[in-house]
Structure of Redox-sensing transcriptional repressor Rex:
Amino acid sequence: MDFKSNHHHKNFIDGVPYATVKRLPFYHRFLTDLSKKEVERISSRELAAKMGINPSQLRQDLCYFGSFGQQGYGYRVNDLLREVNRILGLNQEIKMVLVGGGHLGTALANYDNFSRRGFIIKAIFDKNPEVIGGYIKGIPVLDIKELQEYLRVEPVEIGVITTPAEAAQETADRLVQGGVKAIWNFAPVSLKVPEEVLLENMHISESLLLLSFKLKQRRNQPDPV
Ligand SMILES: NC(=O)c1ccc[n+]([C@@H]2O[C@H](COP(=O)([O-])OP(=O)(O)OC[C@H]3O[C@@H](n4cnc5c(N)ncnc54)[C@H](O)[C@@H]3O)[C@@H](O)[C@H]2O)c1
C-alpha cells in the first residue's frame, strides 16, 4: 500500500492520521517483541489486549499499514513489523553526529539498540581537549571546531545535542549550518531552529518533575483500605 502525501491536511502525515503516527513506536515495540519470540501471527484481539488498547482502535490503525489481516487468521507479525518499520523510515540507515561526549553522550553512544535499528553515530564532537582524539565505544571523538568541515565531507541527517544547557543553542546553530535535517536535543533548553529543521526534545528532568508531582499527589491521598 502506498501512502499519498496529504500535506494540506495537518492531521495527516503521508496519509496516516497523526494520532496513529504517535502510536507507531508503541506498535514497533510490541511487534518487535513478538517477532523475537518467533510468534508468526496474532489476532487483532490478542494484540490489542497485549498492548492494552481498544481492539477497534487497533484494527483502524492497522488499516493504514496495509491489509495484512485475514478473517479468522489474524496478522502476520513480520509483515506488520516490516510495514511499521517502513512507515517509521527504519528500513534505511540514518547517520547521526553527537555533540557533547560527557556522561549522557557516552551513555547514548554505548546504547547498542540505536545502531541495531539503523541509527549510526558517525562521530562525537566535544570541546574538551582531554576527550578529543579518543574513542567512545569505537566512535571517534573530534574537536567541535571540526564539525562544519566534517559535515561537509560526511553529511548526516540527525544531530544529537548532549552539551550543557549553555552550549546547546550555539551547538544547534553549528549543526544547522552544517546541514543537518533534524536535531535530537537532550539539553534543558528551548532551542530556536529554522522551520525546515526538525526538532525533537528529550527533556529527561521534566519527566522526573512530573513523576515528583504524581508522587506528591499519591502521598496526599488516604491509603486504600
Ligand atoms: N547525565 C544525565 O543523565 C542527564 C540527564 C538529564 C539531562 N541531561 C542533560 O544533558 C546534557 C549533558 O549532561 P551530562 O551529564 O552528559 O554533562 P557532562 O558535563 O558530563 O557532558 C557535557 C559534555 O559537553 C562538552 N561540551 C561543553 N560545551 C561544549 C561545546 N560548546 N561544544 C561541544 N562540546 C561541549 C563537555 O566538554 C562535556 O564533555 C545537559 O544539558 C544536561 O542537562 C543529562
Q: What stands out?
A: The domain at 12-87 is CATH 1.10.10.10 (Arc Repressor Mutant, subunit A). The chain has nine helices and eleven strands.
